[in-house]
Each structure stands twice: as C-alpha cells, then as structure tokens.
Amino acid sequence: MVKRIKTAHRSILSHLFTLLVPMLVPLLILGSLSTFLIKLYIQDQIDTKNDALLSQTKSYMELSFREMDSLSANFSANPVLSVTMKDILDTGQITESNFDLLKVIRNFVDSTVYANPFIYSLYIYFDNEDKRFLSSVTGINTVDKFYDSNWYSLYEGHDNERVWTENRILQRRKSEPATRVISIYNRLRVANGGGVVVMNIKAEYIESLLRELPAINSQSILLMDKNKHIIAKNSDVNYMHLFNLGLFSSNDSFSRDMKIDGRTYKVDMLTSARFGWKFVSIVPKSALYSLPSKLMLLTGLLLIISTIIGLFLAYSLSRKKYLTLQMVNAILHAAERGTPLPKVDQGRKNDTYGYITENLVKKFVENEFLTIQLSERKYKLQVMEYIALHAQLNPHFLYNTLETIYWKVASYTGKPNEANEMIENLSGVLRYSLDSSAHFVPLQQEIKYTLRYVDIQHIRYKEKFDVVWRIDEDAACCEVMKLILQPLIENSIYHGIRMKQDKSIIRIKAELIGEEHMRLTVTDTGAGMDKARRLEVLSKLNSDIEGGQHIGLQNTHKRLNITYGERYSIRILSKKNWGTAISLTFPSRSQ
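RE: above sequence
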C-alpha cells in the first residue's frame, strides 16, 4: 500500500512539473518583461509630458497677461500720458486741455478690461497727496472712499520691487459674494514721482485653465508666487503640507522623486522669470504606475489560477493513469494464472489513453490465450491466423499514427489544435479497428473511417498529396473486409508519396465487376518502382516470413487468401518515377 501511495505521489509531481513549467515560466517572463517595459515607457512619457505641461501653462499664463505689459509700456513710452494722468490725480481737476487725453486713457483701460474676461478690475495710480487713482470700475476715486483699499497698503509695502503679485479677496457690496483675485503690480517710473498699474485677475479663471490641462488622476498642478504662496491649483488635491517649502525656494527648474511617509512623489517645478511664479506638478508615483501594478497583480492572479488548474489536471491525469495501470496489472495476473479475464469497461470517448491501453492489452492477452487454446485443433488454424493478422495490423497502424502525432506536436509547441484533431481521428480509427464484433462492414463505413486516417496523414504531409475518390453507388453498399483500404493508402504514402518532392495524387476506385465481384484500386503518382523491386515485393507477399517494409500489403494479401481463397490476391503495377497501382478483386457481398 505504501509503495502504491509513493508511486501515486511521484506521478502527481511528475504531471504537475510537466504541466506547470510550460504554463508558468512563459507567463512569469511575459508578465515581468511587460511590466518592466511599460514602466520604462511611462517614466519617459511622464517626464516629457510634465515638462510640456508646465511649459504650456507658463507660456499661456504669460501670454494671457500681456495686457499688463502693453498698458505699462504706454505710460513708460509716452511721457505726455504719464504727466497728464499724474496732473489729474494731483489736482482732481479735469480741464479742457486734459479731457481728451483722459478719455484716451479711459478708453484704453476699458477696452483692456472688456476684451479680456479674466480681468476683474484695473487701477492706474501716480503718487499724490489725496491718494487718487483711476479705476476701471468707478473712474477717478480716492483710496479711502473706495471699497478696495487693501491694494494701496500692499503697494506701499513693496518699495524695491518692480513687478510682484498678491492674493486678495474683493467684495464690492455686502450683498454680493466675495471674489478671490490675483493682483499683479507693475511699478511705473516718472520724472517727478512714481506710480503703479494694478491688474486684478480672477483666480477662478486661472484655476479653470489649470483644470483644463490634460493632467492624470491624483496629479496636483499648482501656481505659486515668489513667496511660495499658492495662487491657484487645478483641484482640491493638496500635497503641499507634506513638503518642506524650502524645496521650492530655488529659482531653478527641477524634476525629482521624493519619498515621504513611505510614498514616492514625482515633483516637477518650472520658474517664470517674468513674475517670479513657480509652476509645480506633484503626483504620487503609485498613480503613474497603476497600469504596471495592475499588470503585476493580474500576472500573480494568473499564476495562482494556473497553479490550481495544474494541480487539478495533475491529480486527474495521475488518477486515470493509476487506475488504468491497475486494470492492466489485473489482466496480466489473470492471464498468468489462467483465470477468466476481468471485465474491462469501454473507455470513455475523451479518455483516449485509457481506451488505447486497456483495449490493446486486452486484445494482446486474448489473442495469446486463443493461440494456446486453438493450437491443439488444426481445423481452427485459419481462424487463429485471421485473428492474429487482424490484431497485428492494429499495432502497426498505431505505431505509424503515433509517430505522425509526435512530429506534429513537436512542430506546434503550445498550439494543440491540430494535435487534438489527430488524436480524435486516431481514437475513432482505433475504436473501429479494435471492434471485433464484425469482420465485414459496408464499403461506405470502411471509407468513413479511412477518411479519418487520411485526415491524420494530411496534417503531417500538408500540401503533399490529394485524395480523389471514385466509388460506384452500387459498390458502396456492398460489404468488404474491415481495414482493407487503410493498408493500401498507407503503402502509397510511405513508399511512394513520402519519397517524392512534388505534390502527388492518390486515386481510390471501387467498382463492381459483373454481378459477383468487386474491384478496389489504389493508384498514386508517387516515386514508383522498377520491375526488379516490384517482383521482390510480390515475392514477399507470398512468403511465410513476416515483417519487412510492406507489412500492410503482406497482411492484406494473407487476409484475402484466408477469407476468399488463394486465387484471390493483390496485383501491383508500377513504373519508376511515375507511380504505383494496387488492385484487389474479390467476391462481392450484399448487406
């Protein structure tokens, strides 16, 4: 019992190794290689995309604020406008001489505001005692009477800066909601004082631009001023609390990976020299590599599933093999002791291995048993020879067919479609050949199972030969010896067509001769034989020595002699390099 258990375990491990190695190794290599290549590709794409994304944002922002440069340039390049505007703000008087210029300035300011929907308001200020300034909202006004006075205190606090930005919240009326703006200050220099142009940009507009950028999930794009205050961002995702703000102190652009609290972040920064703004992209690397992570997870899942399937298949195959070997062992023991053979159940249709093994062993033992029993009675000699010859044909055919399957599986590793087809055809032919219930079958049934054999050979010798059938309708209904066609076709393939480089044709003809005889002819356009070789083959057909290259023809010839008498035999016509014709004439049998 222990020995049997060990044998079963070894069988399971052998099957498991045979099944899992071809399944798991390619899967593991493919999954790992795919993950590695995708990571490299994503890394390259992310670096390129982030650089392009931040550069695009920077260019778009600076382009959007070109109106500030245009407005400031007008006052700097045109002293008349500056002097006139300063005079109006100093005196608070609008005279006929400065009215036209004020109108020009006001139109320029209004056109700038109305042409750019992202501008909330615009102020022009030159230093004066009453703190008067020009507003795009109310015109000439003073700081102390205007709803927005915070801008002036921020202006006074930046003596040495020419251009800077501030985050502010404005509310024109208490009934209106507050508006968050980004105020851009551009200091003006005139001969007798200074001034400033203040452009209030809607922060919501800037954030809408950031949200429209093609960012990936979990990517945070930030716009920071030179003081590292966040001006705008593309979403509510905020990673800034994780980082040391000193990281963003440099004015140099950078791209680096940073590990914080066990997570790695991809951080890119681009600096704008125009306003001192910093365009920052922060994204967790886990979000970037979600696809490779999913691929690795899928690979692991497939490995587990493959292992489970392999275990199940290994157990099933080992169990079938163990049961089959037990049955074979029981049959051999019964044969040795001379006791009745145990009943062997008919193999299931899909259990080809068990079916072939059990039936071949059973046939072998039965034939040996019949040989011993019938050796004492001379009048049963012909019956014994017929059964022996019939059984001899099956292993010969099985050997050639399994050889074909071997070559086919070797050429289609991992592609079992054609191999399965061959095994199915083999199973059908074996069931037919091993069925000893009838020695005569209708010709149409013989053709049906011969076609299975032809299909098997077609798979091995693709495009090597074609088969042409010419079967008379009356002949198809007559009974013939079982397995009479297959040896003839096999002989044409192995000794004629296989040796020839060009494509060949096998013609099979069945016809009635008169009312009592049938003629079967198998003609091929193969290599053919010379006269000496043909006579040698004919002499071997009548020899008592079995074996050789033409065992199928010899077997068929003897079966004809035993069944119909010695005057019925095989005729062979052949010509070197032209082909061979084999014909059999025998009494016809109606169903």
